[in-house]
């Protein structure tokens, strides 16, 4: 249920909240912050009364035919009473790269009240939901994961591969040879394109090694079903702040795909969900991590549109099958009592809300026996 802002909270945010000035944005541009988005009007200049903390700002250019460009966004950790300024570049249909000068920032500070009537109020009614979806995302995690450009792009940003005279001559010779032997396709004459490295999200690598070096056949069989060794490896190498940082990356990936519309983020989210939910040994080692995992999944599942589950169910039953393994491990292992209680309560909630069946055996996770 949406939470309305009390008069006291409104007064506090009016005095202490941050302000985002988003200047020179063409009318009709899609603009959003956290869980809400709008098409801006001619007088729009930004958002006020933003609660201090981490937020996700995003936008899409809209042309004369009302066609919306792929979404671009950025995370920002707003400070108390901070004014953040971004200016629109009409030619690039994106925010300008240059920073605002100190003199200009001082002018914005002095004229804070004059901007007030041109600023939308932060949608406080969805703030509690936003906090529940980003509880484990920290500024340090953002610095580690976000691209070098600090922008999240829904569409992959490509650049042609660098070439020299020799490589161009070789490519031209190959094309001429192909033309003499077969009909060339359009792709043959296009430049080679690669994703810009500075625009790629720096997700953690999921360990490919599922069992310890020198593992016995019994251990290989065990860890083909139990991903605890892979989780342990990831916690020791990729998650820098604490063991709960992996949940922060899971939340980051979820926001990037649900709001940022980044498909690669959806793939990373699935990998992290699978890694965590198919652990058995680690349930006893990291009970607090898995208690928090249940909380994270509870809020995330509540935000995915119901028709999205249909797609998942038709594609190898990813979510239901993975959660089925998790619940089965909780039910059969000698784990923390409170962890089991929360997990089985979550299972009952999903069964009641979505009519999901967690009773059948998941064939895809049948043991791989090594002789």
Brief summary:
The protein is an alpha+beta fold and 371 residues long.
Commentary on this structure:
This protein is of the alpha+beta class. The protein is built from 16 helices and 12 strands. It has helices at 7-16, 102-110, 112-115, 127-133, 139-145, 165-181, 186-189, 217-225, 228-237, 245-258, 263-277, 281-285, 287-303, 306-314, 318-332, 337-354, and strands at residues 18-23, 30-33, 36-39, 46-50, 53-60, 72-78, 83-89, 94-95, 119-121, 152-153, 158-160, 193-195. The strands form 3 sheets. Strands 8-7-1-4-9 form a 5-stranded mixed β-sheet. Strands 3-2-5-6-10 form a 5-stranded antiparallel β-sheet, with no helix packed on it. Strands 11-12 form a two-stranded antiparallel ribbon. The protein is globular and about 70 Å long.
Key features of this structure:
alpha+beta; 16 helices; disordered C terminus; 371 residues; five-stranded antiparallel sheet; 12 strands; five-stranded mixed sheet
């Amino acid at each position: 249920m949406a939470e309305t802002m009390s008069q006291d909270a409104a007064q506090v945010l009016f005095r202490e909240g941050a302000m985002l000035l988003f200047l020179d944005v063409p009318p009709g541009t899609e603009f959003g912050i956290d869980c809400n988005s709008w098409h801006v009007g001619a007088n729009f200049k930004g958002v006020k009364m933003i609660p201090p903390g981490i937020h996700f700002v995003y936008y899409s250019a809209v042309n004369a035919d009302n066609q919306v460009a792929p979404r671009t966004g950025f995370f920002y950790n707003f400070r108390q009473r901070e004014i953040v300024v971004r200016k629109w570049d009409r030619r690039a249909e994106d925010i300008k790269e240059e920073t605002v000068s100190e003199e200009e920032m001082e002018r914005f500070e002095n004229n804070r009240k004059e901007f007030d009537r041109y600023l939308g109020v932060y949608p406080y009614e969805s703030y509690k939901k936003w906090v529940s979806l980003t509880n484990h995302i920290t500024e340090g995690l953002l610095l580690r994961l976000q691209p070098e450009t600090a922008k999240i792009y829904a569409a992959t940003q490509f650049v042609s591969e660098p070439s020299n005279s020799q490589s161009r001559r070789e490519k031209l010779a190959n094309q001429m040879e192909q033309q003499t032997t077969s009909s060339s396709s359009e792709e043959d004459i296009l430049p080679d394109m690669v994703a810009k490295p500075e625009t790629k999200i720096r997700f953690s690598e999921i360990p490919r090694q599922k069992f310890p070096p020198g593992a016995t056949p019994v251990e290989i069989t065990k860890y083909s079903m139990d991903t605890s060794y892979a989780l342990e490896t990831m916690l020791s190498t990729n998650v820098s702040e604490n063991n709960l940082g992996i949940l922060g990356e899971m939340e980051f990936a979820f926001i990037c795909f649900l709001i940022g519309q980044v498909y690669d983020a959806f793939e990373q989210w699935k990998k992290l969900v699978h890694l965590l939910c198919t652990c058995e040994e680690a349930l006893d080692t990291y009970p607090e991590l898995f208690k928090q995992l249940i909380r994270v999944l509870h809020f995330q599942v509540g935000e995915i549109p119901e028709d999205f589950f249909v797609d998942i169910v038709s594609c190898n039953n990813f979510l239901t099958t993975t959660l089925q393994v998790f619940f089965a491990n909780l039910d059969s292992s000698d784990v923390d009592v409170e962890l089991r209680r929360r997990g089985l309560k979550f299972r009952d909630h999903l069964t009641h809300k979505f009519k999901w069946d967690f009773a059948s055996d998941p064939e895809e996770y049948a043991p791989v026996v090594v002789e």
